[in-house]
Design a protein that fits this description.
Blueprint: H1 2-48, H2 67-75, H3 78-109, H4 115-124, H5 134-144, H6 150-154, H7 161-173, H8 176-184, H9 189-200, H10 202-217, H11 221-226, H12 235-244, H13 252-272, H14 274-287
């Protein structure tokens, strides 16, 4: 018996040691990846607040300045870019939330012929990269006369197959008895959506809103192709044009200051609402 207990203790000890080693290696890899992501951000912040003659030096001094941000703000119409980006991201997100709510409810609760086939076709769109459709979307916008318009930038993103899939899974997890009880009380389908499905799926909506807003805030290639005027360009395109323009003059301090102006709203928003974001993603993942 003693020998058997010793063997069991030895095996348990080896399992614990192996688990500790694996966890240590995993945490070390995560810290290394986090450091690799953090180094460029630290360099951008460091350079944005430095004078031009000390931009590429890493020696510590108390010489900090806001002149780079003032120069950038007056050197390019970033006010227009901010307004355009807010309109584009907010407009796309609003239409997406409306369209994916109706589509997700139809795929989750409404019975019609070919429902599963149509849903599979929606899922196929997730595997198609958006860049593949640039030429065809551009041709459609040209025929409709929507080039260099905010509607033209937003139109290809009004429907989201990923959002439909995410919300459909959330709707299917809700008890069907709630809908039956509401129908007995005379509630319509729109009333069901507004009073039952939407409130109970709020974490999923928040999760999708975070993903959609950050994606369209950082979207670059499609707005670059379809916009030609300051009135319709978002921040990403404005930043690229500013970095190549004579206003920046190849000054890394001004380019980094402009970059910080673009990424700061998303970064600050995440720092403020990170608990809500993380809890919503965990809640939607458990329910889905």
């Amino acid at each position: 018996m003693n020998s058997r207990k010793q063997i069991l203790r030895g095996s348990q000890f080896s399992i614990n040691v192996r688990r500790i080693v694996v966890q240590t290696l995993w945490h070390a890899c995560m810290y290394i990846l986090g450091l690799l992501w953090l180094i460029p951000m630290v360099w951008v912040v460091w350079t944005a607040f430095r004078p031009k003659d000390a931009a590429l030096g890493f020696h510590w001094t108390w010489e900090w300045t806001w002149d780079n941000f003032i120069t950038v703000w007056h050197g390019a119409p970033f006010g227009h870019y901010y307004l355009n980006t807010l309109i584009l991201t907010g407009g796309v997100l609003s239409v997406q939330l409306f369209s994916l709510t109706l589509a997700a409810y139809a795929f989750a609760r409404v019975r019609f012929a070919g429902r599963d086939v149509v849903f599979m076709l929606f899922l196929v769109q997730i595997m198609v990269p958006p860049d593949v459709l640039i030429f065809s979307n551009y041709h459609v916008l040209k025929e409709l006369g929507l080039l260099d318009t905010k509607l033209g930038v937003m139109l290809p993103y009004f429907a989201s197959s990923f959002g439909i899939f995410l919300l459909r899974q959330a709707f299917k997890q809700l008890p069907y008895e709630l809908e039956e009880a509401a129908r007995v009380e005379g509630c319509s389908r729109l009333g069901l959506l507004w009073r039952i499905y939407v409130p109970l799926s709020r974490p999923v909506y928040l999760s999708f809103a975070v993903v959609s807003f950050s994606y369209h805030w950082n979207n670059f290639l499609w707005p670059l192709i379809v916009t030609n005027s300051v009135e319709n360009r978002p921040l990403t395109v404005g930043l690229a044009l500013f970095a190549k323009s004579t206003e920046s003059g190849g000054q890394w301090t001004e380019v980094c200051a402009a970059t910080l102006l673009v990424v700061a709203p998303i970064f600050i928003g995440f720092l403020i609402f990170q608990r809500q974001f993380i809890s919503s993603f965990m809640h939607s993942g458990i329910k889905g």
